[in-house]
């Protein structure tokens, strides 16, 4: 995977599901890794796409060569977060010439990311007892659970007793706070405070103020049905486990999966998992530094747009890019 992120699996499946005669422009909203994955896949296959990101996350848009001109990046200005990038995309999609990729509600996206679990089961020969992943939206964890259910229905890989454990980077802990309150509704989060929290965390891709949490089949249902739980970790914890993982396993991780490693450490300490269990740890980002060491170029935003601007202004500005 050229982008060193498992989000590349969703980019391939989403783009493959698009009609070959599709004339509208795809719109993708991302906090970083999904943007890099879709930009790479769409560039390689010359699929027109507009990618909406927070400007503060533009450093995640690194590539080994210049992207095809069919890829356009628009950004919400400094101080904005992923939710603001979502707002930009939604305004753009009000024009019939553009359409949203769909996020967690897109079955192709979930099935693409779910291949990580299929890959694990292919090697292990069984459904894991516990699954650990860092989450912003939780779509990857939802995808893993859906595929575990399918594998259990198949019958060759055991019953689905997989507990789903997810991690967030404090102080941005919206899913964790909502789950610990045992509420299907998301905990209250002031937009200004949410942006501040997103700005200070190392794992910025984990800062989604609008995750698919309470809807049917969302993160709340997955945690409840699987008997799972949520964990949090600090920036210091992330740096500690980044160094530990590199020293013990021999390769580097992105900040987000370091949160998943921290969650596993907490679960072991708390007795939530035992040493004889089969555990899947989603460590996306392995090899990032080694890959970037080969040389890379950064994709600067083509436009920086105010997410509070009228939809007509956003559409007109993006139209000029094409």
Describe the structure in brief.
Helix content is 43%, strand content 14%. The protein has helices at residues 7-17, 33-45, 82-92, 107-113, 115-124, 139-154, 174-180, 191-200, 219-226, 235-249, 255-270, 288-292, 311-319; strands at 25-29, 49-54, 62-63, 71-76, 98-100, 130-134, 163-169, 229-233, 279-281, 297-298, 303-304.
Distance between the termini: 29 Å
Portion in strands: 5-15%
Q: Biggest sheet, strands in spatial order?
A: 5-1-2-4-11
- The CATH architecture assignment of the largest domain turns out to be 3-Layer(aba) Sandwich
- CATH class call of the largest domain: Alpha Beta
Elements, N to C (H/E)? HEHEEEHEHHEHEHHHEHHEHEEH
Number of domains: 2
Summarize the amount of helix as a percent range: 40-55%
Helix/strand structural class: alpha/beta
What is the general shape?
A: globular
Give the low-pLDDT segments.
Answer: none
CATH fold-level assignment of the largest domain: Rossmann fold
Largest sheet: 5 strands, parallel
Whole-number mean pLDDT: 93
Q: Tell me the Rg in angstroms.
A: 19 Å
Instruction: Tell me how many strands there are.
Output: 11
């Amino acid at each position: 995977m050229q982008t060193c992120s498992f989000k590349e699996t969703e980019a391939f499946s989403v783009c493959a599901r698009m009609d070959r005669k599709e004339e509208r422009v795809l719109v993708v909203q991302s906090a970083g890794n999904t943007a890099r994955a879709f930009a790479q896949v769409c560039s390689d296959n010359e699929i027109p796409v507009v990618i909406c990101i927070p400007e503060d996350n533009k450093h995640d848009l690194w590539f080994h060569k210049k992207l095809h001109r069919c890829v356009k990046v628009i950004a919400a200005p400094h101080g904005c977060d992923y939710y603001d990038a979502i707002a930009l995309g939604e305004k753009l999609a009000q024009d019939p010439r553009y359409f949203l990729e769909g996020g967690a509600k897109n079955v192709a996206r979930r099935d693409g990311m779910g291949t990580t679990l299929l890959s694990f089961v292919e090697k292990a020969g069984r459904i894991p007892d516990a699954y650990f992943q860092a989450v912003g939206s939780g779509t990857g964890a939802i995808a893993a659970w859906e595929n575990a259910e399918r594998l259990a229905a198949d019958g060759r890989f055991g019953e689905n007793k997989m507990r789903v454990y997810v991690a967030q980077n404090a102080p941005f802990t919206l899913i964790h706070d909502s789950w610990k309150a045992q509420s299907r509704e998301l905990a209250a989060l002031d937009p200004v405070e949410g942006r501040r929290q997103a700005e200070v965390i190392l794992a910025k891709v984990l800062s989604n103020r609008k995750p698919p949490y309470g809807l049917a089949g969302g993160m709340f249902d997955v945690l409840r049905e699987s008997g799972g739980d949520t964990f949090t970790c600090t920036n210091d914890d992330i740096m500690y486990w980044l160094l530990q993982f590199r020293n013990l396993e021999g390769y580097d991780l992105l900040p987000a999966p370091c949160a998943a490693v921290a969650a596993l450490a907490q679960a072991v300490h708390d007795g939530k998992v035992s040493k004889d269990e089969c555990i899947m740890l989603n460590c996306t980002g392995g090899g990032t530094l080694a890959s970037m060491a080969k040389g890379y170029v950064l994709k600067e935003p083509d436009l920086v747009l105010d997410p509070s601007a009228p939809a007509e202004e956003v559409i007109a500005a993006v139209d000029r890019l094409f």
